[in-house]
Amino acid sequence: MARPIRIGVIGFGWMGQAHSRSYRSIPTYFPQIDFTPRLVAVADTMPQRVELAINNFGFESGTTEWPALMERDDIDVIDITAPNALHQELAEAAAAAGKHIFCEKPVGIDPAATAAIDAAARRAGVITGCGYNYRWAPLVQYTRSLIEQGRLGELTHYRGRFFSMYGRDRLGLLSWRYLQEEAGFGVLSDIMSHAIDMAQHLCGPIARVVSVRDTFVKERPLPSPGAGTHYERGKPGDATGAVTNEDYVGALVEFANGVRGTLEADRSIFGPQSSIAYELNGSRGAASWDHEKLNQLQLYLPEEQPVDGFIEVLAGDSFPHQGNIVPGGGNSIGFEDMKVIEAMEFLKAVAADQPFAPDFGAAVANASVAATMVRSWESERWEDVVSLRIEDDALDA
Fold it and tell me: pLDDT averaged over the chain?
């Protein structure tokens, strides 16, 4: 009989629901797995969300008090999709309780919190995972394999971005994401973290950065009780409050291997809606991909192709995991399919008692770059990336 992996989810907003749908979908898309996800308990401060989780998602139980999940012996994994300000308290409690932990990025309200969370998890010896789900797009995995095989040659240039539409509506409510005290930084923590992760996933560690920031929408309508996600909007004339973190971050970057690049993130831009994208160039070829065209890769391999130019590669069942979701070539997958792949890979690591990537160590590596960008905002010059990882010999100090 397949081993059950018993899951408790904390935070049942949109992302908590997406994770829960993913766990439920794993056995249907991946019948070959040797474990069974079991949705044991959910915690959320809103009773109606707890009720939804039990009635519509199949959770066995629910509570508005998250410590109850840490005390239970019938939970193996704590999945954290609560706001960033709660990540450290939740993750450190889960680690102390000996639970394996999956946490949505950026893992902590700021880079120092990310490092502390990682240290607590390593001290406890639990398996960790971080929600950098765009890594799991089949064509991103294919691009990484081309790099590892040397088919693009020596990498020279990288241009990465995450441009999102969610803050472009000037009447979008002042949710926690726009508040430094609740979210930490703005796009730096929220979507630039994805751009940093993608860059380091494909090109290796970033060594130096020079960065700038700006806030384009300085006031937003105040939410009413029970409302306030970044997809809800107010009305003209509503009372407003100040946005206290940044809408935009841009950076020039140098990778440890000599690659030169740029990174940008913007949540209030008009045009791109959910464009996490990269363009990379090597001495033998080039590749570019955009999440808005998730199932298409632009590939330039002049030594292997009969024409000297980019070709369009369509995703299909020959690429990692896509065949489990839809057969054939050119048949598309979507955002939540990447979350299913991510959830499956994490639980597979838990079942095998093996490390998962990206783990909290990857979150610290990305947070270290983010912290360097902050230093550059203050110094207005190039800054070297300094790892925030707490060394093993200091864990027991």
Answer: 95
Within 10 A of 238 (CB to CB), how many other CB atoms are there? 15
Rounded CA separation 253/382 (Å): 9
CA distance 69 to 97: 10
Sign, CA dihedral 341-342-344-345, equals positive
CA distance 71 to 355: 24
Residues in a beta bridge with 7: 39, 77
Residue with tokens 């980019």: 310
Q: Are 358 and 131 in contact (CB under 8 A)?
A: no
Cα angle for residues 353, 6, 351 (degrees, 5° grid): 20
Using only the alpha carbons of the chain, give its radius of gyration: 21
Task: Please list, in sequence order, all residues whose beta carbon lies within 8 angstroms of the beta carbon of residue 234, skipping any fewer than 6 positions away.
Answer: 171, 172, 173, 220, 221, 222, 223
Give the burial class of 254: count Cβ atoms within 10 A of its Cβ; 0-12 exposed, 13-18 middle, 19 or more buried: middle
Q: Buried (b) or exposed (e) across 117-143, using 16+ Cβ within 10 A?
A: bbbbbbebebbbbbbbbbbbbbbbbbb
**Could you tell me which of 248, 209, 237 has the C-alpha nearest to residue 384?**
209
Q: Are 208 and 254 in contact (CB under 8 A)?
A: yes
Torsion sign, CA atoms 226, 228, 234, 240: positive
What is the three-class DSSP state of 297?
strand
Distance CA 139, CA 332 (A): 11
* Cβ-proximal residues to 393 (8 Å cutoff; 6+ apart), any chain: none
Contact predicate 106/134, CB 8 Å: no
| pLDDT single digits (tens) 65-93 | 999 999 999 999 999 999 889 999 999 99
For residue range 35-55, what is the model confidence (pLDDT) as tens digits? 999 999 999 999 999 999 999
